[in-house]
Write a structure and sequence with these properties.
Length: about 220
């Protein structure tokens, strides 16, 4: 049975996460919003159960993606465990982000990984709202320049490589449980702490980081 993740007792803890990031080739570029007043936002639309669409957008960092979600059931005749939410992660266009951060690789990686973790948090909350959503199967095409699901590996109970027409894709199976959600919060906390520490330590020698801190001095969009 799925767990509700709105439990006020769920607390943030400290954990260590080795950052593994990538810069996938963008599939499309959309017009950036001007003067955004908020950070990460999401919206889920029901196309008709069991099909949903998750739109995730970080207005300040000019990142967005759309992920199709499907809650598998035995009646659909697929070789998946009943209650598995299947979601394919697309490439995320980062041209606008790179313009904002002056193509700095450190900023690029740490901002993108936080966007990915926040997106997964919303997917797990979606599972908590649906009693028939018990696991999450996330998948993404492997790229020569990186593995875009690396941030999720510590949460997965199973990893697989599947051949595709263009190469291979990685699949990770993640339980949609309170324990997983708590662990995700730990990882998000740790990444955010490392992000802040890196910025303050490197600002004197890195003009891109100095300019980023001027535009977001309180780091309120990742706090």
């Amino acid at each position: 049975m799925s767990v509700s993740f709105n439990d006020p007792k769920a607390q943030k803890k400290n954990a260590h996460l080795k950052l593994v990031v990538s810069n996938p080739t963008p599939v499309q570029k959309k017009k950036s919003l001007q003067n955004p007043v908020t950070g990460f936002i999401t919206e889920i639309q029901e196309k008709g159960h069991p099909h949903y669409t998750l739109a995730a957008c970080d207005l300040f960092h000019r990142l967005e993606c759309e992920i199709n979600l499907k809650i598998h059931s035995d009646e659909q005749g697929e070789e998946l465990e009943d209650g598995t939410v299947v979601c394919h992660f697309p490439d995320i266009a980062t041209d606008d982000l790179d313009e904002l951060i002056e193509e700095d690789e450190t900023l690029h990686g740490m901002i993108l990984i936080q966007f990915q973790l926040k997106t997964l948090e919303r997917i797990l909350l979606f599972c908590g709202d649906h009693a028939d959503a018990l696991n999450v199967l996330v998948e993404a095409e492997d790229r020569p320049d990186g593995y875009i699901l690396a941030a999720y590996e510590q949460l997965a109970t199973h990893k697989d490589k599947v051949p595709t027409i263009t190469g291979t894709k990685t699949q990770l199976l993640i339980p949609a449980s309170q324990k997983t959600f708590d662990k995700l919060i730990d990882l998000m906390d740790d990444v955010n702490r490392d992000f802040r520490q890196t910025l303050w330590e490197d600002q004197s020698a890195n003009p891109a980081i100095r300019n980023y801190l001027k535009s977001n001095p309180c780091l309120k969009f990742f706090g």
